[in-house]
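Dear colleague,

Thank you for sharing your sequence with our group. We've completed the structure prediction you requested, and as agreed, I am returning the results in plain text so they can be pasted directly into your records. Please verify that the sequence below matches your submission; if there's any discrepancy, let me know and we will rerun it promptly.
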Amino acid sequence: MSSVTSLWATLEDQLLPVFSDYRARLADLPVEVKADRTLLTEADVVVQDLIVGAIRELEPGAVVIAEEDERTEPRADVQGSDGRVWVVDPIDGTAEFVRADRVEFCSVVCLLEDWQPAAAFILAPELAAGRRPIVITADAPGREVRVAGKQPEPVREPSGHVSATRSAGEDRTNFDAAARRAGLAVKSRTTSQTIDMVRTALDLSSLTAPALPRFDLFWRRSQKLWDGAAGLCLAKATGLRSCTEEGEELSLNPSFLSAATPVFPSEITGRSEAVDWFLEAMRG
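Please find the predicted structure tokens below.
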């Protein structure tokens, strides 16, 4: 993993000045609305090119799945891969990024080995108090997570908060009723799905101002691969359970990954007891 660790350091050094530059001139930054109603800016493209370039500097033949690569056909390079695939989301939370008063956005890279999340890099340029950056890295096989280069304290107590962001008009009657009965605070507005998954695995409250609470559970329907891959890696590294609404293991395989836009029908992550509660709640 030494070469991957070196890549993470390179990306941190290269990306932070780019984010600082774009955030300083948001008023002049054109914003497009894509077909899926998410936002696209010049910064997304520039950051993606920088990340993919750094990956290919390390690994010239790298197979890369990136959000802004505008694929419409199946990915033949994935089908021909040995299971080593890089997943890139240049700016997760672009709608937050284009708002000067918001900080919940990040750059995300996840390395899959044998088709499964193995290593992840998450750079949130302004998430820490004083709008300072937070860098999180994960090594799933080694069960190691680093926040700003240090091992975080283990999570011990439930927080009473859950992330259950949703699309407009989505029916969640059973869940909403169960959450109210359990006295849970539910975050339903989408910011960065990756940061919400980080906050499910780790407690960042001491680093942020105002303090962002940890989540006991993360749930999202129709989750795109690049929005969830790094979070799944972090979940593996911290011993959390991830599954579908049916309680089945998430399927990352050549067929799924070779789609132009790989999408999980649903994704739930949390401690086993929290996931069990969710599955029972959904049965209603």
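Summary note from our side: The radius of gyration is 18 Å.

Kind regards,
the structure core
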